[in-house]
Amino acid sequence: METSELVELLTADGLRLLDSLPPYESTTDVLRSVSELRKAGHSPGLVASVLSQSKLRARASGKFGPFAGRMLFTEAGLEQATRLRVAALHAGRFQAAGLSRIADLGCGIGADALAMAALDLQVTAVEIDEVTAAIAAYNLAPWPNAAVVNADVAAFRPDGSSHADPLDAIPEAFDGVYLDPARRAAGHQHSARITDPADFSPSLDFAFALAERVPTGVKLGPGVDRELIPSDAEAQWISVDHEVVELGLWFGAVARPRIRRSALVLGDHGTAELSADADSEDVETGELGEYLYEPDGAVIRARLIGELGRRLGASMVSDGIAYLSSGTAIETPFASCFRVLEQFPFDEKLLRRELSARGIGRLEIKKRRVDVDPAQLRKRLSPKGRASATLILTRVAGRHVALLAERV
Question: Which residues make Cβ contacts (< 8 Å) with residue 147, sequence separation at least 6?
Fold first, then answer.
């Protein structure tokens, strides 16, 4: 979205037009709407803006629920925004620590700041991109305890500060800080991912230096190099509906004592957490039992597979492979459980015959430590029939095997 398009959208007429549109459903509806809106005399730029926002609002409902219907977005801003359910957990840390004046540095479209404002925290949201900052200001407008500043985080000095260095000025003005360093190139559409932490905006060095001065939370991608995690940080990987969405690093009063590794799992079951004071040692390798457990991605990222294995009374199926096995099925939010029906050598001709004999047409394929493309393998196996199953390709006791299983 360009500045001129946003200016036209952020008029009373533009916002009324946006709110008057029916919920976005399909491209066909958009084409019809374009024609109708143009016939009504609306400019091409405004028509494009409101229909783009309508489409983004529909996509955003998964992250923001009913709040999406009154928010504005950019493509990149929506993609990178924290889910409101997760943002509420972030905000809760500051509230529980008794902190009230929070700086949200690199606020994007304002998701985390919105959650903080909803908990009656005084939040100042800082965003370097002019268009994104304007959208954040719109999204936070209903909250009198939230303000948006268009500024470079690494050069931001709160009003009235006597310090020239932001690393001194920010702790003077705020009780707590939340940073979401930009990990993509500048832009409002899908942009390239930045891999070097020194090129994050702000850099990790800036974020960690700030964390030495004031209670701080830092949001990072879940696959960040673990060697970068400071020893004094609480590192929490979060998954939502089996998708690992972020790594949160917490320092000072917003970090919990004696917790350095955490896997927080959100789903239909609610919220569940597995935590420890360090990476957990793996359980021993054992024989394949009747049940196989696939740990949630957050558990794997947090290196708490051993902790989960001890809770389940399970063993590893092979050294260094994130599958656990036992003779009993135990319900857990931290892993998916499968009942092993058959074990075969990994031989495609054999597997094709077995699937055909069982009438298996709906086939889920999982793999670990096996060099195969599941999509291409499915084509070659050509499953047909009404039955369903899961094919798990991995190593058991160091040997390549194919496990035919069903979800428990």
Answer: 123, 124, 125, 140
Strand partners, 250: 217, 234
Binned at pLDDT 50, 70 and 90, residue 293 comes out as very high
Look at residues 66, 39, 71, 38 and name the one whose alpha carbon lies nearest to residue 56. Answer: 71
251-281 b/e (C-beta count within 10 Å ≥ 16 → b): bbbbbeeebbbbbbbbeeeeeeebbbeebbe
pLDDT higher than threshold 90 for residue 238: yes
Tokens of residue 271, six digits: 């919220």
Instruction: Say what the pTM is.
Output: 0.91
- 326: which strand partners? 291
C-alpha 232, offset from chain centre: 23
Residue 401 DSSP SS3: strand
Answer for the pair 312, 340: CB distance below 8 angstroms, yes or no.
Answer: no
Please list the helix, strand and coil fractions of the chain in percent, rounded to the nearest 5, in that order: 40, 25, 35
